[in-house]
Every structure is written in C-alpha cells, then in structure tokens.
C-alpha cells in the first residue's frame, strides 16, 4: 500500500442533477457536519426545501444558503481543469497531480476524458457493453458442453449434468470472491502521491472509472487485455483440475465475470424498478462512488462485503 497519501475525501451531495463537494464547508454547517455526512451522495432538494426530515429535523434553507452552495459546485470547480478540458491525450500527465490525485479522482466528471493523442489507441480504450457477452458467452457454452460430454464418458447424462452444475456454481462463486478481492485490494490500492508511475497505474486500473463513472464506453473490460488474463488462468486451472472439472469450473468463473460486467454496466445506466433487488444494488453501488468509496466493494453480490465487514449502504 502506498504511503503518505493525503486522506482528503470529497463530501458529495446532489441538487437538481448537479454535484457539490461540500467537504470544506461541513464543519461550518449550522446544522452540524453529521447531517451532511448522512446525506452524502443523495439528492438533497427535498431536505433543503424543508419538505423532508433528516435525523428528526426539517428546515427550509434561505436563498443565501443556495448561493453559498454554488461555491462548491463540482462543475464550476472543474472548469478550466487542463486534464479534463485537454483536446489531446491526458493519460501521461495524470501523475503530475501528486497529492491532489486521490481527491481529484473522487470528484466525478460527467463526461469522458481523452487518454491518447492517437485516434487508434483512443478507440482501443472503448468497448460497447454487448461486446463482452458476444465474445465470452460462446466460450462458456462450448466449455460447458465439453464438460458434460467428458463427464458422460464415466457416468450417465443425468449425473454428468449434476457434476457440471456443481462445478459451474463453484466457478461462479469463485469469481465473486475474485471480483471483491480485485475491487478492494487492487483497484482501491492507494498509490504513493510521490510516484507518477504508481498514480498512472492506479488511474488505468480504476481511477479513471471513479473520475468518469458515467462514461458508458469505459465500463466493461476490453476483450484483448481480458484474453491475456483468461489465458493465464487457463494455464493455472487446466493444470490444477481434471479436464471435465476444469471445463465446468472455468465456464462458471467466466460466466461470473460476464455477469459482473453486465450488472456493473446496468447499475450505471439502467433504470431498475424502485424497491427491486436491482434498484437496491444500483443505489448500493452509487453510494460506493458518491458516499463512501471505502465500503461496498461487491458489484454482483454483497456476500463478501458481509464476510469482510465492508458492507455499504442502500437506499435511505
């Protein structure tokens, strides 16, 4: 873990579709900082207008309060930011942020950033959501069929399907632990503010996503680098398990990955029915981005957040 990085966390609230970073104001708030922290990441219009209670209190704010709030508008703060407004590739300049990097990536920008000067390289950083199932689901189906056929050489079809199902589910569960572990201990590793290379590595791994969480073409993992990772696991698992077990387990883990990428995309761009499970997961993940990025690491499931005591927050 990097050392010396400053824990300057944004405190984001939303009003009429605009985000405000009120971290510097919280201690001055007449109603106390605790109220603002409780509302972090939330749309606060009803509370400011006095239409809804928070922590037992209802208060209609004055025009002066609205004027004061505008000083903390994230769009206004980001106006003139050379990394955001650059028309050329900004990727290799992100390391220059130094001690400001951690705070900068957690002030979300509702847009996209140009990473490379080259149009070709830039296009390779963008992937439409449907590419992921189109590339990987045929492999999931193929390896599932191979597994069942291989099991059938030693037992009947019914038991072959049962064996495939069991190892497939184990593969899916293994992916959920992999997903959690990557998100918590790799993607949220804190780079040293004094190392431009560490900052660059973190930005590529996950910092870009927290900076531009609504950039739909950079939400799913591109198939080319994914293929390299899949290839590494292929070598490991095929030399660990018997062939039919490997095919079932590998198909399950790959299916888990595809499901994760699709769920993650939907949580950012979908509109689930209120009070449904997907609505809860959308708010849960939204709060990871805008309320507290140190909890709520599970995307497709909260199972491992329960196990490792990093449970995030759902709807108020």
UniProtKB/TrEMBL annotation:
Which residues hold heme?
Answer: 29, 61
One GO cellular component from the entry? Answer: endoplasmic reticulum membrane
> Which BP terms in the Gene Ontology apply to this protein?
fatty acid biosynthetic process
Q: Please list the residue ranges annotated as the Cytochrome b5 heme-binding domain.
A: 13-78
Show the GO MF annotations: fatty acid 2-hydroxylase activity; iron ion binding
State if Translocase is listed as a keyword: no
Q: Could you list the residue ranges that cross the membrane? A: 129-151, 157-177, 219-237, 243-267
Q: How does it sit in the membrane?
A: Multi-pass membrane protein
Which UniProt keyword terms apply here?
Answer: Endoplasmic reticulum, Fatty acid biosynthesis, Fatty acid metabolism, Heme, Iron, Lipid biosynthesis, Lipid metabolism, Membrane, Metal-binding, Oxidoreductase, Transmembrane, Transmembrane helix, Zinc
Q: Where found, per UniProt? A: Endoplasmic reticulum membrane
* Summary of the function given for this chain in its UniProt record: Plays an essential role in the synthesis of galactosphingolipids of the myelin sheath. Responsible for the synthesis of sphingolipids and glycosphingolipids involved in the formation of epidermal lamellar bodies critical for skin permeability barrier.
The record's PANTHER family line, in alphabetical order, gives: FATTY ACID 2-HYDROXYLASE (PTHR12863:SF1), FATTY ACID HYDROXYLASE (PTHR12863)
Q: Which family does it belong to?
A: Belongs to the sterol desaturase family. SCS7 subfamily.
What name is this protein filed under? Fatty acid 2-hydroxylase
């Amino acid at each position: 873990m990097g050392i010396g990085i400053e824990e300057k966390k944004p405190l984001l609230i939303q009003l009429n579709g605009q985000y405000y970073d009120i971290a510097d104001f919280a201690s001055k708030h007449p109603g106390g900082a605790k109220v603002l922290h409780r509302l972090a990441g939330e749309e606060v219009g009803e509370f400011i207008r006095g239409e809804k209670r928070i922590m037992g209190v209802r208060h209609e704010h004055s025009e002066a309060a609205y004027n004061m709030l505008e000083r903390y508008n994230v769009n206004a703060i980001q106006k003139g930011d050379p990394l955001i407004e650059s028309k050329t590739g900004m990727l290799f300049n992100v390391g220059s942020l130094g001690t400001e990097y951690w705070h900068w990536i957690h002030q979300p920008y509702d847009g996209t950033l140009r990473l490379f000067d080259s149009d070709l390289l830039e296009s390779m950083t963008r992937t439409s959501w449907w590419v992921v199932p189109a590339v990987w689901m045929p492999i999931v189906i193929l390896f599932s069929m191979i597994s069942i056929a291989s099991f059938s050489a030693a037992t009947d079809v019914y038991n072959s399907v049962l064996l495939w199902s069991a190892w497939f589910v184990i593969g899916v569960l293994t992916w959920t632990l992999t997903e959690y572990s990557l998100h918590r201990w790799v993607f949220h590793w804190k780079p040293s503010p004094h190392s431009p290379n560490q900052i660059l590595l973190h930005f590529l791994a996950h910092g870009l996503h927290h900076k531009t969480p609504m950039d739909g073409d950079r939400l799913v993992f591109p198939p080319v680098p994914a293929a390299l990772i899949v290839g590494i696991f292929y070598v490991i698992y095929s030399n660990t398990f018997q062939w039919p077990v490997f095919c079932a387990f590998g198909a399950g883990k790959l299916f888990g990955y595809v499901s994760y990428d699709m769920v993650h995309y939907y949580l950012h761009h979908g509109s689930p029915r209120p009070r449904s499970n997907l609505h809860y997961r959308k708010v849960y993940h939204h709060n990871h981005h805008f309320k507290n990025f140190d909890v709520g690491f599970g995307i497709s499931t909260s199972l491992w957040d329960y196990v490792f005591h990093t449970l995030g927050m759902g709807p108020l």
